[in-house]
Amino acid sequence: MIFDKLRKFNVVFDSPEVNSPPVFSSGDVVSGKVVLELATESKVSSLKLHAEGFAKVHWTESRSAGSSTAYTQNYSDEVEYLNRREVLLQADNGEMTTLPAGRHEYPFSFQLPEETLVTSFEGKHGSIRYWVKVKLHRPWTTVKKIKKEFTVIEPIDINTPSLLAPQAGTKEKMARIWYRNAGQVTVTAKIDRKGYTPGEVIPVFAEFDNSTSRSVLPKAYITQTQTFIARGTMKQKRAVVATLCGDAVGARRRESWHGRAIKIPPVGPSILQCRIIRVEYALKVCVDIPGTSKLCLELPLVMGTIPLHPFGSRTSSVSSQYSLNLDWLHMAIPEQPEPPPDYSSVVSDEEAVRSTPAARPEDDLSGILQRSLMAYVQEFRFRPPPVYSEVDPNPAPFSMRPRCMTC
Predict the structure, then answer these.
(1) Contact, 55 vs 142, CB < 8 A?
(2) Distance in angstroms (rounded) separating the CA atoms of residues 43 and 292
(3) pLDDT value, residue 62
């Protein structure tokens, strides 16, 4: 039969490293070859390649139109980033091309747009994907298609003034027991910079002033927020990707963290330039206060791809830039780590009320989102992060003078 004539039909990308998929960024040249292996002589009308890149979002929400009437509202949007076509094989006069039995290779090459692309991403309500699709047209048979995705990671260099700037803040809360004030809790925190890369350790400098009559418990979290936007409506998915728990601060006492370490797990870079999908990170320094909602101070983070003081030229190809910092794709996780807390246990009661959506049926994610996930997925698909060291290498004395953390 004619279907048996085609033994192999696949796409192979050129890669500088053996057994390692290539990584591209805007302006790079994507090259490779289409491989055909025929069992017998075969006639071919054409062989065409189409390269595409899209950001897409989709989710559904249930609406009520009365006591007994309900309907489902669909939200979807997309942004095109790549559209290239190339003819690999086609006779000039429109006639058939006869290929002998055996292996045939057809090279292809195209340049990604010079304007900034967006990092590949897979999430619950959306994705950013790039792929090449090849169609083989033959007489008297259906068109044979093959599709292969490739990875785009837009570099984020943390060696810039805005990402090297220290981040600091102060927040206070009056604790209440029944209808009377029980004293004030104040948290002041500072980190060395805004930009980090996966695998780095963030030294947290913080001061906790507990003026209440009960002990409070300080904690720190790294959170990730995925935001999907369609038709003027926003949907968010939040997760805690790393956690750090400190020692209790006694009643009417003050304690400090002198560079308490929290390690960044293997997560994907921040996505800040896409119109319909954003991935953002933050460091939350919180205090659990008995009898009242927790106090949380949030410091923004940007997850970059080019680490602090990288070696080599910054104008080199993205593949060589990532040779140093792609370890976050393969970082090993201990066999039995302690899972991070739910996001609901991190936010304050007021914030939880504002961000909690109305009850609705499970979203229908069939269709465009039913795809295999990639290793650099921003949604936390790895094992939960390990228990990071909570031992202060420079413990503070029992009594400590007040210290300004924002200076």
Answers:
(1) no
(2) 77
(3) 87
Pairwise CA distance, residues 104 & 99, whole Å: 8
- Is there a contact between 306 and 352 (Cβ–Cβ < 8 Å)? no
Does residue 246 belong to any structural domain of this protein?
yes
Strands 23-24 and 144-152 turn out to be parallel
Strand runs labelled E in 118-215: 121-122, 126-137, 144-152, 167-177, 180-191, 195-196, 201-210
User: What three-state secondary structure class fits 345?
Assistant: helix
Specify whether 110 is located in the same domain as 147: yes
Containing domain of residue 44, as a range? Answer: 2-152
Q: How far apart are CA 261 and CA 259, in angstroms?
A: 6
Tell me: do 142 and 236 sit in the same domain.
Answer: no
Q: Is the Cβ–Cβ distance between 168 and 299 less than 8 Å? A: yes
Residue 190 lies in a domain: yes
The reply to whether 53 and 174 lie within a common domain is: no
Question: In this prediction, what percent of the chain has a pLDDT beyond 90?
Answer: 62
Residues 6+ apart with CB under 8 A from 69: none
Cα dist. 90→26, 83, 99, 111 in Å? 30, 20, 12, 22
Q: Count of alpha carbons within 13 Å of 94, Cβ hemisphere only?
A: 0
Closest by CA to 296, choosing from 351, 253, 348, is 348
Domain for residue 393, yes or no?
no
Q: Work out the angle at residue 278's Cα, subtended by the Cα atoms of residues 273 and 284, and round it to the nearest 5 degrees.
A: 120
pTM for this predicted structure: 0.75
| Tens digit of each residue's pLDDT (9 = 90 or more) over 232-291 | 999 999 999 999 999 999 999 999 999 999 999 999 999 999 999 999 999 999 999 988
Q: Please report the pLDDT score of residue 351 as a whole number.
A: 61
Q: What is the pLDDT of residues 310-349, one digit of tens each?
A: 543 343 344 444 433 444 333 333 334 445 566 666 666 5
Nearest alpha-carbon partner for 146 in 132, 158, 157: 132
In total, how many domains does the chain have? 2
Same domain, yes or no: 76 and 40: yes
CATH number for the domain harbouring residue 213: 2.60.40.640
Q: What's the pLDDT at 349? A: 58
Give the strand pairing for 295-303 and 195-196: parallel
